[in-house]
Specification:
The complex is a heterodimer of chains A (about 150) and B (about 425).
Chain A lengths: L3 H6 L2 H8 L12 E7 L4 E10 L2 E10 L2 H14 L4 H15 L27 H15 L4 E3 L2
Parallel strand pairs in A: 1-4
Antiparallel strand pairs in A: 1-2, 2-3
Helix pairs in contact in A: 2-3, 3-5, 4-5
Chain B lengths: L4 H4 L6 H5 L8 E2 L2 E2 L1 E2 L10 H14 L9 H20 L8 E4 L2 H16 L5 E5 L8 H10 L2 E5 L9 H7 L4 E7 L11 H10 L3 E5 L11 H4 L3 E5 L10 E5 L1 H6 L10 E4 L4 E3 L13 H17 L1 H19 L5 E3 L9 E6 L4 H9 L3 E2 L1 E3 L4 H6 L5 E5 L6 H17 L3
Parallel strand pairs in B: 3-15, 5-6, 5-7, 7-8, 8-9
Antiparallel strand pairs in B: 1-2, 4-10, 9-10, 11-12, 13-14, 14-17, 16-17
Classes of the chains: A alpha+beta (about 150), B alpha/beta (about 425).
Chain lengths: ~150, ~425
């Protein structure tokens, strides 16, 4: 039904995480949190963090957006539970490089499930959808509260 | 509502033939014939418009109102003829009531910066409707902040109509200007502007009509409407981008101060003081978009061969046909169900964000708009972050509607709907 281009954007894993987002809930305070907003399409996500010192004990999110932004956030929370702050920051840099098609970017095959996001590269207008959760996580880790993609 | 089959057979309107005049429509997108349903954002251009542009640049490109050489005289003649054609097309009493500008946005900004600054003061009110495009909101907010005036909003109801009573109640003795879209770009609502203009005038206010979504889709007669200002964009009526116009009643224009200074808008300049030209030149500082104006005239000539009544009927039939079929798509919710609607339909499909829908439809060759349509207050009203929007033009057919429906159903399958 889908052509190959489209199938590489909407992989089963993206469709699945959009339909049943993981860690889709608010964490009780005390917590770190940040809101991300993409004014172009109205996508709005809040990322919640419980930190154990330098380690992410739990990360969750809530909000609304397109399948790409919701699946990206959902996959992110799965990948980052238990990671340290610097591991998370390294992952944020890696995913940004992946999504912006940076030649120095990682090989999607090395990224496990997150590699599914690579299909977005062929859709410049959708890259911001995929990066929103990651920008917002960065903002939350920095102890700031708001992140706009514009 | 059922479509009368006799009306579908209108011999003079053949959208399939019209389609062939638009070269961009002949292409395939992702292997599918392009179905262009983003006409409220911009329309495609017919061959006569493209030819008019090339002809100008190939054979008589010259600056206007300046030279005595042959090319300059020819360019000036065609530019002024375009002004004449547009005036006649929208029912202005004379060409001097037409100011050529970049588009409707610039036209509204001109009114705010010139007439607005001279006539709106502290405590005055500017009345807008809730369904205005950002271009008919922000210029007034900027002016209001500057002079201490207040922007008042006439709300829309649950269907997306501005009720005449609600509108009248929002008028006050402090209302100096009323800004109304003739057709909502986000919902397709056709406002009852004749009545609204009458009640605004009765309250002593001037009226600006944002006609960006109306001209090119229905007959427009500014004199019959009796509006004071009318803003339009060429690119939404099959003309090039970067050309549009403001219509204003002559007695208002004559008393309005310039809004931009430069060449072509003066009678004489010295360092003590400059004398300004009469309208329309007073408001056209700098070299204008000559090619654009000539292209606009070609678009008007093209529309006239189709007939604006016939264009409006065609789009109305197509709209009713599309509405009838869209509501049968499972999970589809119409955003806005106005009493009177032009060829614009906003919708939301359960479980399918408009942005995903836009990408999925594009892969079926169907171009629609997704987003907030520069009408965030309308999105807030219906409590959606964005909508998907299909909008029609002269070249759209029932087959285009079928392609849209088929693509919507396919998209639902992809997302497990």
């Amino acid at each position: 039904m889908m052509d190959t281009d489209l199938a590489s954007l909407y992989r089963d894993i993206i469709i699945d995480h959009n339909k049943s987002p993981r860690n889709f809930r608010e964490l009780p305070p005390p917590r770190e949190e940040a809101e991300g907003y993409n004014p172009l399409c109205g996508d709005r996500l809040t990322i919640y963090l419980h930190m154990d010192g330098e380690r992410i004990r739990e990360v969750s999110f809530q909000g609304s957006g397109c399948a790409i932004s919701v699946a990206s956030a959902s996959l992110m929370t799965e990948a980052l539970n238990g990671k340290t702050r610097s591991e998370a920051e390294a992952m944020i840099r890696k995913i940004r490089a992946l999504l912006t098609g940076d030649e120095q970017g990682p090989d999607p095959a090395t990224l496990d499930k997150l590699g599914a996001l690579a299909g977005v590269r062929a859709y410049p207008s959708r890259v911001k959808c995929a990066t929103l959760a990651w920008h917002t996580l960065h903002t939350a880790l920095e102890g700031m509260h708001r992140s706009d993609t514009e | 509502m059922a479509v009368n089959p006799d009306r579908l057979k209108l011999p003079q309107f053949d959208a399939r033939r019209i389609r062939r005049d638009f070269p961009a429509l002949a292409q395939k997108i992702h292997g599918h014939q392009l179905v262009y349903l983003d006409n409220a954002a911009t329309t495609q251009k017919p061959n006569p418009v493209i030819d008019a542009l090339t002809d100008y640049y190939r054979s008589y490109n010259a600056n206007v109102h300046r030279g005595v050489h042959t090319l300059s005289e020819l360019a000036t003649e065609r530019y002024e003829a375009a002004r004449h054609n547009l005036a006649q097309f929208i029912g202005a009493s004379q060409p001097e009531e037409i100011i050529f500008l970049r588009g409707a946005t610039e036209a509204i900004n001109l009114v705010a910066a010139s007439w607005g600054l001279a006539n709106i003061g502290a405590g005055d009110e500017i009345l807008l409707t809730e369904l205005e495009h950002h271009s008919n909101i922000v210029p007034w907010q900027l002016l209001a902040e500057r002079v201490g005036a207040r922007v008042v909003v006439a709300p829309i109801d649950q269907q997306g109509n501005v009720a005449p009573e609600t509108f009248s109640r929002a008028l006050s003795e402090r209302t100096r200007l009323v800004g109304i879209a003739q057709v909502s770009n986000a919902l397709g609502t056709v406002n009852p502007i004749t009545e609204m203009i009458r009640s605004a005038h009765a309250a002593g206010a001037r009226v600006l009509i944002d006609g960006a979504q109306a001209v090119g889709h229905m007959p427009v007669d500014v004199r019959e409407l009796d509006c004071d200002f009318y803003a339009l964009s060429g690119h939404k009526m099959y003309a090039p981008m970067g050309i549009g116009a403001l219509y204003a009643k002559k007695d208002l224009l004559e008393r309005m101060p310039p809004w931009q200074g430069g060449g072509d808008m003066i009678r004489a300049v010295n360092f003590t003081r400059s004398l300004y030209a009469d309208p329309p030149q007073r408001f056209e500082a700098g070299t204008p978009n000559v090619a654009g104006a000539i292209g606009l005239a070609a678009a008007i000539a093209y529309l006239k061969t189709l007939g604006m009544e016939a264009v409006a009927t065609h789009e109305k039939i197509l709209l009713d046909y599309a509405l009838e079929r869209l509501v049968m798509v499972p999970g589809l919710r119409l955003i806005g169900t106005p009493r009177k609607r032009a060829g614009v339909i906003s919708f939301w499909v359960e479980g399918l964000h408009p942005h995903d829908l836009g990408t999925l439809l594009d892969h079926a060759g169907v171009a629609i708009r997704t987003g907030h349509h520069c009408a965030m207050p309308v999105m807030d009203h219906f409590q959606v972050p964005a909508t998907a929007r299909a909008s029609f033009g002269v070249y759209n057919t029932q087959e285009d509607v079928h392609a849209l429906i088929a693509a919507l159903n396919q998209a639902r399958e992809v997302f497990g709907g």
